């Protein structure tokens, strides 16, 4: 498995996105977003996505040069039309406009319709937190998860994320989770590496528990985390993604990898001085970190701590790319005639 520097992967990914008709600036933006996922340790949302992305472009379901736009603003709410282009810039536009509305109203919510895969949700809520606000986001997705008590795919992996600003303006506290036991991308990583998924994460086509990642792709289903509790959180994202962003299961199936994202920004300065809010958040974080570790743990971490540490390590040591993903990247690069310096490991 090759170890790649982030800049090499950014260049390779941007080249591939340009090769399928994406404007250069947008190609770099999406490449940066995917590699950022790898840097933070979430390989499930990084460069492993390249084949899926290219396949959807070549199927005609994704318009690589589409430009998202705000199509409606009503008080503290807004709608963005992603025009079935790349999801990351569409959701960033919605996030930036939601921040602006929250400055005006104290709270705001934005949605994106006709939206392709937005990648990790954490960067969007972290953007809100770096603006001194509380960020909340969620999205529905194509059917992959069985509701509590069922064995067939109905709900998406339906991520939910939040971020809260503390005293460290660059590194807010943030959580980004799939409401499935594990994200579909992590099943993909396990399949590529030839390793099992955790017990309880998936069932096979017959509804029997399995640890073989291939059973999911052969028609099985992911399971929601935490039984009925995780299933309930997933349902919230499912209902809002369909009801507010208009992303029905039919639309999501027609645009494989699509999302119905919702983003909310809350301005804490409407409740008191922002500096006091930041200080209170950081103080509470230190109380958590100072808790006595349980057996098997060396320390207690806040949400976001593992990603910050992993990014520091991978920026210095490089990103390990599994052989299946790397071979696919090289194969696509050769197919499109990219400079071989981009994929020379």
Short description:
This protein folds into 2 domains: 1-65 and 315-345, Malate/L-lactate/L-sulpholactate dehydrogenase, four-helix barrel (Hypothetical Oxidoreductase Yiak, Chain: A, domain 1), CATH 1.10.1530.10; 70-180 and 224-303, 2-Layer Sandwich (Ribosomal Protein S8, Chain: A, domain 1).
Computed Rg: 20 Å
CATH superfamily of the largest domain: Malate/L-lactate/L-sulpholactate dehydrogenase, NADPH binding domain
Order of helices and strands: EHHHEEHEHEEEEHEEHEHHEHHEH
Strand content: 15-25%
Low-confidence sequence ranges: none
Structure class: alpha+beta
What is the C-level CATH assignment of the largest domain? Alpha Beta
CATH topology of the largest domain, by name, is Ribosomal Protein S8, Chain: A, domain 1
Helix content: 40-55%
Strand element count:
13
CATH architecture descriptor name of the largest domain: 2-Layer Sandwich
Give the biggest sheet.
Answer: 7 strands, mixed
Descriptive account of the structure:
- The chain has 345 residues and is an alpha+beta fold.
- It folds into 2 domains: 1-65 and 315-345, Hypothetical Oxidoreductase Yiak, Chain: A, domain 1 (Orthogonal Bundle), CATH 1.10.1530; 70-180 and 224-303, 2-Layer Sandwich (Ribosomal Protein S8, Chain: A, domain 1), CATH 3.30.1370.60.
- It is built from 12 helices and 13 strands.
- The protein has helices at 6-19, 24-39, 50-59, 87-105, 122-130, 184-193, 213-217, 228-243, 249-254, 274-289, 305-317, 323-335; strands at residues 3-4, 69-74, 77-81, 107-113, 134-141, 145-146, 160-164, 173-177, 202-203, 209-210, 221-223, 259-266, 319-320.
- The strands form 3 sheets. Strands 2-3-4-12-5-7-8 form a 7-stranded mixed beta sheet. The chain has a 4-stranded mixed beta sheet with strand order 6-11-9-10. It has a two-stranded antiparallel ribbon with strand order 1-13.
- Strand 9 and strand 10 form a beta hairpin.
- The protein starts with a strand and ends in a 10-residue tail after the last helix.
- The relative contact order is 0.16.
- The model has no long low-confidence stretch (mean pLDDT 95).
